[in-house]
Amino acid sequence: MSENSVEVPAALLQERVLLDCGNVGAAAKIWVKDTYRGALPWAPFAIKVTDDLRPAPNRFHVVVANTEASWSPKELQAKLNLARSGCG
């Protein structure tokens, strides 16, 4: 699980912007500014985020499964709840 904020220059918002998760084992789930953007179940692990960005700090939250068996839906939800509460 990873969470980062990125300051996006206004000039960049006139281009197509992709969030590339890089080397992911099995799948990735993406949130931008607390809005779920989707799951990436196969390579390339990149998603268009242009419409979600503002010329300000933009928070990205990425949950990665390195194998298909990494997390059950119940375990994933528990991990997300812990992370959002600051305990994960």
Could you list some keywords that capture this structure?
single chain, 88 residues, mainly beta, Jelly Rolls, four-stranded antiparallel β-sheet, two-stranded antiparallel sheet, 1 helix, 6 strands, 38% strand, globular
Structure, described:
This protein is mainly beta and about 90 residues long. It has a single domain (about 1-85), classed as Jelly Rolls (Sandwich), CATH 2.60.120. The chain contains one helix and six strands, in the order ββββββα. It has one helix at about 75-85; strands at about 1-5, 20, 25-30, 35-40, 45-50, 55-65. The radius of gyration is 14 Å and the shape is globular.
CATH superfamily: Galactose-binding domain-like
Which percent range fits the helix content? 10-25%
If strands are numbered along the chain, what order do they take across the biggest sheet?
1-6-3-4
Q: What gyration radius follows from the Cα positions, in whole Å?
A: 14 Å
- Give the distance, in angstroms, between the N- and C-terminal Cα atoms: 9 Å
Write the CATH architecture name.
Answer: Sandwich
Largest sheet: 4 strands, antiparallel
The general outline is globular
Q: Find the CATH topology.
A: Jelly Rolls
Q: Given the helix and strand composition, which structural class is it?
A: mainly beta
Tell me how many strands there are: 6
The total number of structural domains is: 1
Order of helices and strands: EEEEEEH
CATH class: Mainly Beta
